[in-house]
Amino acid sequence: MTADDASAIGERLRQLRQAKGMSQEHAAHAVGVASKTWNSWETGRRFPRMGNLERIGEEFEVDPSDLLPPDRLAAIEERLDRMEEAIAKLLPDEPDNEKGPLS
User: Fold this and answer.
1) How many Cβ atoms sit within 10 Å of the Cβ of residue 59?
2) How far apart are the first and last CA of the chain?
3) What is the per-residue pLDDT across 63-90, written as a single tens digit (0 to 9) for each?
4) Closest C-alpha among 91, 2, 17 to residue 59
């Protein structure tokens, strides 16, 4: 992610936290991270990992993907599509289910 991405996520986190009337310390505790970590996210110095985005989403009742800038989300979706294609090439074809389990 770029510094701009981290800043955009940080701004969104600040808005969510303030909307709930929480301090940074309270938000950090609710998500299960150190106050310094939350502060570094909110100020755009660092960005949360996916597991932390999921916990933030749960705590603030938002979809974790809504925390990501739209262009970043599109890049992640493209990467996932390529990974799924690569995995599909490695797996054998699925058996024909029309014949039934004992055919």
Assistant:
1) 16
2) 51
3) 988 887 766 666 777 888 888 888 888 8
4) 17
- Rounded to two decimals, the pTM is 0.67
Could you tell me the two tokens for 89?
Answer: 């090439």
Q: Tokens for 34?
A: 């150190």
Amino acid, res. 103: S
Distance CA 30, CA 79 (A): 31
CA 54 to CA 34: how far, in whole Å?
Answer: 16
Q: Which residues of the chain have pLDDT under 50?
A: 97, 103
- What is the C-alpha separation between 21 and 23, in angstroms, rounded? 7
Q: Which domains does the chain have, with CATH numbers?
A: 3-90 (1.10.260.40)
CA-wise closest residue to 17 among 41, 34, 45, 49: 41
What's the token pair of residue 2?
A: 């770029």
